[in-house]
Each structure stands twice: as structure tokens, then as C-alpha cells.
Amino acid sequence: MRLFRSPGDFGFVRRENSDGENQVEINRPILYQSAAGGGFLHIRSQIMLIKFAISSAIVLLFAGCAFAQKQVQDAAGGSIRSTPAYAELLLHKTDLQAELDSLLVDYTDDYPKAKEIRLELGFLKVEMDRVLSVKPADISRLSQALGKLMLKKVELETELDSLRARLKDEHPEVKKARKKVESFEAAIKEILGQ
Q1: How far is CA 5 from CA 18, 20, 31, 153, 168, in A?
Q2: 97-115, pLDDT tens digit by residue?
């Protein structure tokens, strides 16, 4: 018995019987010989294989896009870390951390100067995160002058916090210190275009 296939014969199988006459059987799926030559594949199996191949291609496409996006983000993060503004902040952070480490050799965490340095490191981290969140298109704004403005703002915030610990918010010195912080923040926003 031989199988014949012709275009448009979906649902029909033509068979040659022992007398050499063609017989047509209706409502039976057509079987196709596989490209490898071994056995026959059902049409539904072929459709499932095609769907699987398309699904696999889509998954690989999305995975490739996600990988490329991650590389772009990593490259942008790396270039932001090499800007003058970030370098200024990192240098100051390193100085503060070294000073704190040397203080903690002789004193505890409760030592007033150690508390003050920790507070300043906290304000500094906020500014460093702010620099790292800048869009890659705005990297040119991350100048050394911006880094110095941010450092001055951090020092003023630390000073303001120590004043608030000793004085009320209505005290003139606290008000002056708050105004200074606000002035530096406005300058930083102007440079960053916010």
C-alpha cells in the first residue's frame, strides 16, 4: 500500500489497492513523510512543531532584547561612575569613611563625632544615588562643579541637623541654615534640569 499526497487533499488519503486502483478514504488525516525519510508525521504534529519553533524564536528574541537592555544600563551606570561629579562625592565618602574607621579604633559608635560622620555619610549616599539615577542622555550635566555643590549641600544638611538637635526650628540660626540648604538644592536642580 502506497500513500499519495497532492495539494489540497487535507482530510483525504488516496491509496492504491492490490488491483492497482486508487481508493480514496475520507475524513482521515493525511500523513506526510518526514524530511529525514524515517516514518510519517501527522499534520497536527507538524503544526505543533511549527508553533513550538515560533514560540522558541519569540522567547529567544525577548531574551536577547532584555540582555541588550541590561548591557546598555550597565554601560550607562559605568560611565556615570566615571563622571567628575561622582568622583567628587566618592572622594569625600572615602575620606569620611577613613576618618570614621580611625575614630572607631579609640571610641565607640556613640562618640559624637562618629555619629556626625555617620549622619554625613547618610546624606552623601542620598546625593550619590541621585547622581546614579541621572539618565544617560544627561551625563554631561555631571560636572565637577555639580559634585562640589552637592558636597556643600551635604555639609550644610549635617550642620542643620546638629543645629536642630540643640535649637528649635524657629531659631534664627536654624532658619539661616535651612535657607542655605534650600539655595544649594535649587542650584543643583537647575544644573540637573529638574
Answers
A1: 19, 17, 8, 81, 94
A2: 999 999 999 999 999 999 9
